[in-house]
Amino acid sequence: MMTLGIEVNNLQLKYGSFAAIKNVTFSLAGGRIYGLLGRNGSGKTSLLSILASYREQTNGQVTIGGEAPFENAKIMEQVCFIQESGSFSDSSSVSDVLRLSASCWPNWDSEYAAHLIALYDLPLKKLVSALSRGMKSALGVTIGLASRAPVTIFDEAYLGMDAPSRYAFYDELLKDYMETPRTFIISTHLIEEVGSLFEEVLILDQGRLIMHEETDVLKSRGASITGSEQAVDQITEGLTILGQQMLGRTKSVTVFGELTEEHRKHALALGLELGPVSLQDLFVHLTKKEGLSNEQKEKASRP
User: Fold this and answer.
1) Shared-domain flag, residues 30 and 130
2) Residue 251: beta bridge partners?
3) Phi, psi (5° rounding) for residue 226?
4) pTM as predicted
5) pLDDT by residue (tens digit) across 60-98?
6) pLDDT at 113
7) Domain count, the chain
8) Residues 102 and 209 in one domain
9) Per-residue confidence band for 291, with pLDDT thresholds at 50, 70 and 90
């Protein structure tokens, strides 16, 4: 199966006078798993809806496989966009929705769909309106995976599922990706659960792209430093501080920016403890309102 790359250049989207997407530029190679992170209202769904041809941008360029996707039937059938809210007709049965989906995506895998139907115990004869939130999510996940679309996008599509079902989804996605590579874009709030799948991470904040980095590189550029207040203050002078906590005389600071070998040796000589920073912690610190200024975010996003 072919994989399709995505190019976005100076993308803008406005709803009236409100700018939902502000001059966003990035490039996604085909055949990778991307995580799209951002707080509510950051512009994630607006961005994904443009990629999926659901709406046209106000300004800027988007290409998928070298072609503009909006009102382009050739590209639209290569992109599958599954949202948490779902876009299924309440008056249709589950089997009708699956039948329609099979006609929409030329790479649809009926055998794989049957496997997923059994895995999630989907009630084929039930109307969509009679499904629980969890079952609607399972239906969306089934369609997204079975579509085998070269660009498959999940926008919080699995939030309604219970934890065992979500983890089954993560396992299925990774297994299918290894067997039939395609481009996955996953928008999520459940960073600790699904973050290990991401090969690259994009972070949106108030409509701006503040970070696009390989996951391992991003995590290596943050560190937690813990020890006596005086020693911690000494070693973190001049570093970008994302957050700090005090517990008695012990201070813990989260910094962003790769620590030099000199910094590390100095920290250990001062009796400080160095630790990794989770993707979740980096995301929270980078997007919190009282966190980095726009100038600091721009600086932090540079390698």
Assistant:
1) yes
2) 227, 246
3) -130, 140
4) 0.87
5) 999 999 999 999 999 999 999 999 867 788 899 999 999
6) 97
7) 2
8) yes
9) very low
